[in-house]
Write a structure and sequence with these properties.
The protein is an alpha+beta fold. It has a single domain, classed as Alpha-Beta Plaits, CATH 3.30.70.2660. Helix content is about 20%, strand content about 40%. It contains 5 helices and 11 strands; from the N terminus they run βββααβββαβααββββ. β10 and β11 form a beta hairpin. The chain is globular. The two termini are about 25 Å apart. The C terminus is likely disordered.
């Protein structure tokens, strides 16, 4: 029987970069697999040089309970050493965030590993963040626990995160939610599959499929 660990990712600011350069730090519309695995490593106390094969092998899915609003933060860094010479320069960068977004992440895999992860979410070794160190979760990451279902079914039937967002969000709950599920037959590609420890910075592509699920449990492909 497949098992799925559900993790709510809710906070004032989140940022899930897929393709980041120094002067432009974008965010994906939903959490990336590599960033969530990095969050798990933080909670489990794994160093950047340690293997992450077990975590990378988990099947990954995301349900978007609130899309959030794009927010740009303008940065100016002074006295930066250039890569081609030793001259100090001023560098301007734009960093994008998702404001007031809410996601429910699902990780499908063997129950012993999921239980280990869940305990780390309850008692994290280091402070977890939602993509960047300044983005702190506003809801406990262990709030949903382990479900005896595959990731798609677990996300489809999980309660809406509205109670974690506030009264206005509960009243404005959408009729359907967007789900992005890892699927080898999927028609879309994400460049966020870790291939080695984070210190080696090697990432491959994985295929995903987007679904639409109603809050009463109905599913639409």
């Amino acid at each position: 029987m497949p098992f799925t660990l559900l993790i709510p990712l809710v906070g004032p600011l989140q940022s899930w970069g897929l393709d980041a350069r120094f002067d432009l730090r974008q965010t994906a519309p939903e959490p990336s697999k590599s960033a969530v695995i990095g969050l798990l490593c933080c909670c489990m106390g794994r160093d950047r040089t340690e293997p992450i094969d077990d975590l990378a092998g988990l099947r990954f899915g995301v349900r978007v309970d609130k899309e959030g609003t794009l927010l740009r933060d303008f940065h100016t860094a002074v006295d930066v050493i250039g890569s081609s010479d030793s001259k100090l320069r001023t560098v301007v960068s734009n960093r994008w965030y998702l404001s007031d977004a809410a996601f429910l992440v699902g990780l499908e895999g063997p129950r012993p590993l999921l239980e280990q992860i869940n305990q780390a979410l309850i008692h994290p070794h280091w402070m977890p963040c939602l993509g960047r160190r300044s983005c702190i979760p506003s809801v406990p990451l262990s709030a949903r626990g382990i479900q005896d279902q595959p990731v798609l079914e677990a996300l489809k039937h999980a309660p809406f995160l509205g109670k974690d967002l506030g009264k206005e969000e509960q009243q404005a709950r959408p009729e359907k939610l967007r789900l992005v599920i890892e699927d080898p037959e999927g028609s879309q590609v994400r460049p966020d599959q870790p291939l080695a420890s984070f210190s080696q910075r090697q990432f491959g592509h994985r295929r995903v499929c987007t679904h639409s699920a109603s809050l009463n449990g109905g599913q639409h492909p």
